[in-house]
Fold this protein.
Amino acid sequence: MKPLHTALLAFVLLLLCQSAAALDMDFHAVAPSVYAYIGETGMRTVDNEGMNANSGFIVTDAGVVVVDSGSTWKVAEKIHAAIRRVTDKPVKIVVNTGGQDHRWLGNGYFKAQGAQILAASAGISDMKARGNQQLQGLAAALKEQITGTAVVLPSSTFEQSEVLQLGGREIHLLHFKGGHTPGDGVVWLPNEGILFSGDLVFVDRLLGVLPFSNASDWLDSFAEMERLRPRIIVPGHGAVCDLPKAQRDTRDYLQRLTEHMTRAVENMVDLQQAMNTLDQSPWSRLANFDLLKGGNASRVYLEIESR
């Protein structure tokens, strides 16, 4: 079976075939005029409409900035409905913090509302390469829930940073080196000390090192993010947290993987033995641990071996 088809099949199998229930997009305030939606920590399902990730929005006097547009047109529509319960100001800007489906496949809806869509330029090739595959995988499981969803790329990009001045609010868009996906970036509110980290931070659930991830870049990006000293982090997955929790659940785990596998490769230990001697138990409390631990270990070994 071709690698692309294998990946697509695996993706579809992770989606549970169950009766659809209404996804409740319940945003809560993490600070005045700053809101977050906390998605499920499990995998994509029919019930969560593929939206097993966090998103958010920032209300300014001149309009709303959305952080991640959701997994489908319908999910984006629900994000907009949640915004309208808070304010009647229009959505002016949507920021995609990475190349995973639930970060950007809702772009078409917000484009139709007239919003400008922004992302790091490093993520565009990833979106182009995987967008149709992501859409096919979701369509196979979500069926009519995917209606209206299309691959709609950001209308504008930035390289490493861009500062938005909107309605008296200063919003920084930053891209370091990527990590979970090549285009992973963050939305930083320096005056409030609030960071929307995208997939640079996973808490409460084990992060995934996937075929398009790079653990070394991820650690470098995390180090750059740490220098901001955020007071509040809205992670890509898991509950709103502080920096120490992000360090424990994301940075420390990535360090364990890379340090162990670097020693293994340097000592010419084979992959299976390297995996057998890797102690991941400090993170066994995290959701999806058994599902992801093996793939994480093997991909980091292969990444280091290929240097």
Observations:
- The chain has nine helices and twelve strands.
